[in-house]
Amino acid sequence: MAAIFAFKCSCCGKVHEGSPSYAFKAPDHYASLSEEQKAAMGRINTDLCTVTRGEGTDYFIRTVLEIPIHGVAEPFTWGVWVSLSEKSFKRYVETYDEPVEGDGFFGWVCNAIPWYPPAEPLATDVAVQLGGKRPLLFLHHGGSDDHPLIVDQRRGISVAKAQEIAEFLQHPA
Ligand SMILES: [Zn+2]
């Protein structure tokens, strides 16, 4: 039977309960800007972000990347920003309050995921969710040389691996 995730932390000795989740406040493209650049070029709230450079604008939305944990009901969740085309972004904004079931977009992951090795931009499908939940992210998979994050989303991770990543996130070196 699926259990609730909890573990005694090897860093601090406390019991951390609940499946781990980690969220980025902004896409890396925005976070890496100076304060002046953010004020001049960027716009952001909890779910939407744009960065305008000259003629071009980049569009980002916040999504949920779920990694199943073997034997545990709730997945490991990452709050990840992805870039969308202008057309997709406009559709997402227009239907934000009343998403249309089955709507989906192509997006690129725009955060470096801690613990995992650096990745080339990862391609994804973004699926809207109803009921006020953020869209779900599905990483495209290719072949045997897939990034470990892609493999983990497809196959799930062990409780031990979830614990190792959670400890890394809660107690960064
Ligand atoms: Zn701890």
Automatic annotation (TrEMBL):
<dbReference type="InterPro" id="IPR018697">
    <property type="entry name" value="DUF2199"/>
</dbReference>
<protein>
    <submittedName>
        <fullName>DUF2199 domain-containing protein</fullName>
    </submittedName>
</protein>
<dbReference type="Pfam" id="PF09965">
    <property type="entry name" value="DUF2199"/>
</dbReference>
